[in-house]
Amino acid sequence: LLAQAPQDVEVTVYLIDIEEVDSRTQSFIANVFIGLRWHDPSLAHEGPGKIGKPIDDIWNYNLQILNQQRLVKTFLDNASVTPEGVVTIRQRYWGGFSQPLDLEDFPFDSQRLQISLVRSGNMGTVPIYVISRDSGLAHHLKIPDWEVTDWKVEPQEIPIGREGNTARAVVLSVDVKRNISFFTLKVILPLMLIVAMSWLVFWIGPDLMASKISVAVTTMLTLIAYRFAIGGMVPRLSFLTGLDYFVLGSSVLVFLALLVVAYSAYLIERGKERQARKLDRVSRWAAPLLFLVMIVQSLWLQWGLG
């Protein structure tokens, strides 16, 4: 159980909960327990039991969470020392952790959340990390919109700074997959209904041109309002995500329906009612076909759901 050399340290990282993964700020909120154990003969005492010491009064590994944001500590910064000189430090952290996310396939994406422990400062020998068997994560986590697919705790060499330097660290990695039911029911399905609403103009006769224009304009305004409504749900990125492509394609199809109505009105004004009716008949199957092609392209080819 004890480390084999003074520089060895047994590390326990146990993820108690993940409360939220924020795609907009590329961060997550977690509750994590971290424990350190090593042998320091200089701290051996007569006992009979363990004694407590402030960690600032003893030599310690001073491990820091590399990607921490604002964290709250639950326990006091004390160390427990056995008569043999086995030092144990336990701490529980709650708060935010920064995490770069790959959001090109949002919201059909999978991510890897990490908590990295590194030794701060230049304090002599590089420690050899021994991962405790108690490391892991709780069976049930609060995040309802994500599913945990895998996890591991292991020592890694991670890059530090811009000069190509590396540092030995203990990294807890949790692979999660986004639950698509929320975006399917709250974003994608309503958007499909709005696009389908624009097809009503192709079933209204040319003699009711005012109604056709009213439906087309109303659909376009509804789509614009809907895009503002979902703006707070999607991350602000410099590139287009999978959902952005779907929303953009839907907007183009609704705008094309508006153009068809405008052209149909032009034909009616020119006395070409027959051509206007033919345009409506062709649009009745052409618009749904284009939408189906866009859905297949977005869902099966780009997001890989097939």
Outline the secondary-structure elements.
Elements lengths: L7 E15 L4 E13 L11 E4 L8 E3 L2 E6 L4 E4 L4 E13 L11 E10 L8 E4 L4 E2 L8 E15 L4 E14 L2 H18 L10 H21 L12 H28 L3 H30 L4
Parallel strand pairs: 1-9, 1-10
Antiparallel strand pairs: 1-2, 2-7, 3-6, 4-8, 5-7, 6-7, 8-12, 11-12
Task: Explain what the structure shows.
The chain is built from four helices and twelve strands, in the order ββββββββββββαααα. It has 306 residues and is of the alpha+beta class. Helix 1 (181-198) runs antiparallel to helix 2, helix 2 (209-229) runs antiparallel to helix 3 (242-269) and helix 3 runs antiparallel to helix 4. It starts with 7 loop residues before the first strand and ends with a helix.
The biggest sheet, with number of strands, parallel, antiparallel or mixed sense and barrel status, is: 8 strands, mixed
Radius of gyration: 30 Å
The residue-averaged pLDDT reads 85
Strand content: 25-35%
Coarse morphology: rod-shaped
Structural class, from secondary structure content? alpha+beta
Run of helices and strands? EEEEEEEEEEEEHHHH
The strand count comes to 12
Task: Report how far apart the termini are.
Answer: 49 Å
Low-confidence stretches: 1-5
Q: Which percent range fits the helix content?
A: 25-40%
Q: Count of helical segments?
A: 4
